[in-house]
Specification:
Elements (H helix, E strand, L loop, with lengths): L5 H11 L9 H10 L6 E6 L3 E2 L2 E2 L3 E10 L5 E2 L16 E6 H4 L3 E2 L21 E2 L2 H5 L5 E11 L2 E9 L6 E7 L6 H18 L8 E7 L3 H17 E6 L10 E3 L7 H10 L6 E3 L9 H4 L8 E5 L21 H20 L2 E4 L24 H12 L1 E5 H8 L3 H12 L4 E3 L5
Parallel strand pairs: 7-8, 11-12, 11-13, 13-16, 14-15
Antiparallel strand pairs: 1-10, 2-3, 4-5, 4-9, 6-9, 10-12, 14-16, 17-18, 17-19
Helix pairs in contact: 1-5, 1-9, 5-9, 7-9, 10-12
């Protein structure tokens, strides 16, 4: 597979960095258009006020400018200099207010005096500014002129999807989000790794499995994608990964799926084996990214997440300190290689499909089971029961062998025997 160079990633990072993204609006559209130079994303849209599962699509946010002027006439918290200064989805406001009133709309982090926080208010009308604690402490008494030049209009929620077809309809999903403004590791590393992973996997001439790539606005976009593809994914998805926080120099961390022992988990844990300082995390619905949506009880999809330093566990998270100087494009490229290694591990497995999965098939008339019962089953019969139960395309023969303590060669022989009776098939690279 082709090598992704750090300079390629940096080139796209620099173009995406200044764009004021949010869950809806020109920032998201412009960013997805840039990444569409790498991946031929097909776009799906939902209009404002449209119902998607338990959510309602909000209005589209279009920021133009924002700042406040202190009593001496000095501009502060200028949106055009740093788009984190404006609370994301701020409603328009213009007026002269006191410092005490202004402070009700100011956000800072007392323990990180130099950092500008990232704050949102998507679903409650509000305006506000984010500034460093140091700047907040030094604001002089007096009246302040405030300008928040934004509009909220009926618009469209957009997601991008691309598919690399394989010999089987069984599929692996890769998902990331593109809705934060200027954040490096927590925002841009995910969609960059996803996009260039597509470019890399595109060069696999024969694929056993289908690979689906999706970029969404976080949370509500994943919910919309589940409305679009949820039932299909429940039927065909055998693995998947939420790609986020993959651009810093920290060691790899793997967060398990809700099920905990899916193909996603097994392939990722195989990659993680022996990784120095690597961490394995259990599924946690209280903190995370869109794996929470994919693993929600009604879908319970096999979605894990291979990261570097996870969200909320590094000081720079959701602040202006999560910038270009914090990330490492070489490490980002190595993360693409890591995901490619996981894909190779999945593709190299030997998988069989039971075409008669609803209850045990009647084996006697097919010459696969003795006509007279006996107390003890022979080794071929034991192998057959394990194969019939675990051959859904998400367990390879090596895994079934370890689980059942049955030699792979016997499993393969019995699988071919069942195949000869017409209700077993192997997933092969036939494209």
């Amino acid at each position: 597979m082709n090598k992704i160079l750090p300079k390629q990633l940096e080139k796209y990072f620099d173009r995406l960095w200044p764009i004021p993204r949010s869950i809806m609006g020109p920032g998201f559209r412009d960013s997805l258009k840039i990444l569409s130079e790498v991946v031929p994303f097909r776009k799906y849209k939902w209009k404002t006020n449209e119902k998607i599962l338990d959510w309602t699509v909000p209005k589209e946010w279009r920021p133009k400018d924002a700042f406040f002027t202190d009593p001496s006439g000095k501009k502060r918290a200028e949106f055009k200099k740093n788009n984190l200064h404006l609370v994301n989805y701020s409603v328009p406001f213009s007026g002269i207010i006191s410092l005490s009133e202004l402070k009700k709309h100011l956000h800072s982090i007392p323990k990180q005096e130099e950092a500008v926080p990232y704050i949102t208010s998507y679903y409650r009308p509000y305006w506000g500014f984010c500034i460093s604690e140091k700047d907040k402490k030094n604001l002089p008494q007096g009246n302040y002129k405030v300008k928040v030049d934004t509009t909220l209009v009926s618009g469209e929620l957009i997601i991008g999807e691309a598919v690399l077809k394989g010999a089987s309809k069984k599929e692996i999903l890769f998902s990331s989000y593109l809705c934060h403004p200027s954040l490096a590791n927590n925002e841009l590393s995910g969609p960059l790794v996803l996009s260039f992973l597509y470019k890399k996997l595109q060069n696999i001439k024969k694929r056993k499995f289908t690979y689906r790539f999706v970029i969404v606005p976080e949370t509500i976009g994943a919910v919309a994608f589940l409305k679009l593809r949820g039932e299909q994914l429940k039927e065909n998805m055998i693995g998947g990964y939420q790609i986020t926080c993959v651009g810093d120099g920290g060691p790899f961390t793997y967060k398990r799926s809700r099920r905990g022992d899916t193909l996603s988990d097994r392939a990722a844990l195989k990659f993680m084996a022996g990784k120095r300082n690597g961490k394995i995390l259990p599924f946690n619905p209280a903190i995370g990214s869109d794996e929470r949506q994919y693993c929600s009880p009604g879908y319970n999809l096999p979605m894990g997440s291979l990261m570097r330093t996870p969200y909320a566990s590094y000081e720079e998270y959701h602040t202006s300190l999560d910038n270009k100087s914090f990330i490492d494009f070489k490490k980002m490229a190595e993360t693409i290689d890591a995901y490619s290694c996981i894909v190779k591990s999945i593709e190299d497995g030997e998988y069989w499909i039971n075409l008669c999965p609803n209850g045990e098939p009647q084996l006697g008339p097919r010459g696969l089971f003795r006509s007279l019962s006996q107390k003890k089953r022979d080794s071929e019969e034991l192998a057959m029961w394990w194969l019939l139960n675990y051959s859904d395309g998400s367990y390879d023969l090596d895994y079934i062998s370890k689980l059942a303590n049955i030699d792979v060669s016997l499993l393969r022989s019995v699988a071919n025997k069942i195949k000869s009776r017409g209700f077993f098939e192997e997933i092969k690279k036939v494209l």
